[in-house]
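B., you asked whether I could sanity-check this one before it goes into the benchmark set. Here's the sequence:
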Amino acid sequence: MSDRLREAHGLHQAGRLTEAAGVYREILTLDPNHFGTLYSYGLLHLQTGQFQEAEKVLRAAASLNSSSSDVWSMLAAALQNLGRHEEAIASLDKVIELRPGHALTWNNRGNILLETGRIEEAMRSYDRAVTLKTDYAEAWHNRAVARIQMGDYPAAESDLDRALLLKRDYAVALEHRGVVRALQGRHEEALADYDAALTLQQPTAALHCARADLLLGLGRLQDAVAQYDQALALNRSEAHAWHNRGVALSRLERFGEALESYDLALRLKPDLADAWRNRGSTLLALQMHSEALSSYDRALAIAPGDVESLKSRGVLLIHLQRYADALADFERAVSLRPNDADAWHGRGNVLARLNHHDAALASFDAALRLQPGDAATLYNRASLLSQLKRYEEAARDAEALIAIDPDYTLARGILMHVRLHVCDWRGFEQARQEIAAALHAGRRAIHPFEYLTISESPAEQLLCARISAAASLPVSSPLYRGEPFRHEKIRIAYLSEDFYAHAVAFLSAGVFEHHDRDRFETFGISYGPDDKGEMRARMERAFTRFIDVREAGDAEIASMLREMEIDIAVDLKGYTGGARPGILNFRPAPVQVHYLGYPGTMGTDCIDYLIADPVVVPEEHRPFYSEQIAYLPDTYQSNDSKRRIAARVFDRAEAGLPGRGFVFCCFNGSQKILPDIFRIWMSILGKVEGSVLWLLEEHPSASVNLRREAQSFGIAPERLVFAKRVSLEDHLARLKLADLVLDTLPYCAHTTASDALWAGVPVLTRLGTTFAGRVGASLLHAIGATELITHSASEYEKRACELAHDAPLLAGIRTKLARNREAMPLFDTARITRNLEAAYVEMWNRHRRGERPASFAIGAPK
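And here's what the prediction gave me:
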């Protein structure tokens, strides 16, 4: 028997395990209770991973000799591998009864306790191990691992230092010290530990992955991707590595590759909520919105309380204009994590879009309390304060934003915008130059509509529009793909937010009513408010069909237009406040046009035509427009000949005007009053004794600032008189008290010029260099009063003084305006409608012939 056992031991030691096992079985067949054979056979099973067999054999050995600590120790190992941790601990406790000073057993006991989450008990076992054997490097290391799980990183690092002092080539301890240092933000030291570990051991996927995670945290994205690739070359089934590789690729904007990484991670671990969330964000970047939403939904199905997924889905739902759903996500996010600044910021964004202004401001305030100086929140709060006409508060936010990030998107533009609304001209010229420089550098520094106010360069306005369109109107698949429509009448859809008591409605209502219904079907697509007023009711009657789409997203509205087979879609908003250029970005119609509301180019290929006239867009300016120009013969601007002027006769006193003296007037928005034009106005007042300048009171601070500026020119502040807002009918009647309207530049009077001319008041304008600065001249051409168009600052000033001093000359012009109001094209609503319809027919015929959009001119009607 002893010879056969020696033979078995020899085979076992030589690694010939199958032969050794055969001999052990032979012995046990003869003597089932041979302790030495059971012990060795149990060890062999343990070594070959046959843990159930090992347990059976070792239990038999323990029953024969319960005082053998080695048997109990091996049995504990078998049970641990079988996941039967409590039994394994019980076996180790048997060893400790037999050998209470055995440090290895205390260490192993700590490992099992740590594996089962009993960290404090594990610590007590490790403490006993290192007390018994102070130079026990492995126990110091394992104690550190427990401390890491407890979140006590400094103590963990101290234990790892002790382990490495005892065993300098201890690769796993170096790896874990790298983890601890990374968790404490000491990334370069952590990287050094990982590199040292890699030199001491065969590289593992886990170590490469840990090093890659560190590189990802350091922002060394290319290096991180390379490291993840090394990890995955060793173990392609590591879901964590695929996921974090995707994160690095996403940050590198290699979105297609990132998506592949996330998909591979999810094949390995379908319940990885972070991967679903990050996959959603990558799909959002790829403009695959429905797929992104599905990914966020999957993330939240796995982890319903995941705040990051709620916030990410909320951002997407805002983009999809599903504001109520987005608000629900952000509300849940702030309830789950009240100290999350991003969640409050997102909530504020949604509430602002829902016009819940007070609640939105409260959310932005909460976000900034949690994260003071956050650039995005400062910008959005400034935007909302501007919308609420709380311009000085908005300016403070914009100033703070620029101090933090001078190149933040649109920051300089909004500061310029809000300051101009209160006529705060501090640093105006420098700011204008900085904005122009930023645009030439390709940065989105200002909103295109705001730039019209300060820019005299049509080339720069085109550049600004192109930059804005590239950022806000991503390329999308066209809904219209060339299929022919069979209906008899041309279907025209007008899209606007302004189908209520608004300047655009006042100008265009008559045109909509005059459309030839035998030739055209017209559709009013309204995404603005319903004020329940007279103009709204008139608009609803004016179209063949009026559709309120306020609650629908851009994509939904575009799909509706396509289903309705709209032939010509006309955007009346451009880039003005509340505009939704994203609708036509989906190309729902064969012909797409922008008209009336925005005096400039859209800078995008999704708009085919701009309706203009030869004055606002002369031939030499056509290169500055992304659209083809449809030239109307008289003026591009529509006017409504039904506008009523109140019968009431205002006197000067009730308007706040002096009883005597010449009344210069400008009811343009205060943001159009720039330093150069104001300087000329003050010079005019200085030369026309007793005259006053009558302005619109838009904001108390604007009035204060303008009066202070007047005083700096030696003009008594009371010579600036501010008119309060009244109804349109009363406004037109009150206007007759003015002797001469002085126009602004570079953005001149548009609707306000039509108002004055309709009321019979002369408008003195200076021909600008951009569409926005040439509208006054266009209107004067159309009413036959070109003598009121000047071509330089000096001519403008001289002409204003001449008209103020020559009463008969001015009276003659007023008589002419009264006569021409009925005789000339400006207020001939039927004529402008026929011109527009001729332009639409030409656009449609070109499309039907398969021709590309091209500029054309409509001749004057006969």
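One thing to flag: The first strand starts at residue 490 and ends at 496. Otherwise nothing jumped out at me.
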